[in-house]
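User: Just a sanity check before I run the rest of the batch. Below are the structure tokens for the first item. I only need the designed sequence back.
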């Protein structure tokens, strides 16, 4: 059986190649498979503590200031899922930045 790491490697490889209809079709299939594998494992609860207001430096930071982090992370997770399909290169870049933290 194919495991999650193999699927992630295949996705990374396709995301970093030239975009063609064929590669997009393969990516779509891999995203679906990855999402189905994720459904079988329960999702970890997002952080529910509030650290209070954050420094305002952008519209985004101002909008999230003082909000429930659990709800914010659910929105960000949905955004990242959408970004992985709509713009795989930006998604991969964000994921690399997060991994480097």
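Assistant: Here's the designed sequence for the first item:
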């Amino acid at each position: 059986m194919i495991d999650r790491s193999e699927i992630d490697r295949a996705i990374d490889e396709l995301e970093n190649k030239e975009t063609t209809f064929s590669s997009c079709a393969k990516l779509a299939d891999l995203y679906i498979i990855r999402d189905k594998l994720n459904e079988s494992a329960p999702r970890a609860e997002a952080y529910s503590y509030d650290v209070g207001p954050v420094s305002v430096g952008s519209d985004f930071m101002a909008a999230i200031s003082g909000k429930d982090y659990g709800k914010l992370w659910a929105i960000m997770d949905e955004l990242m899922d959408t970004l992985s399909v709509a713009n795989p290169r930006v998604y991969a870049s964000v994921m690399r930045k997060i991994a480097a933290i």
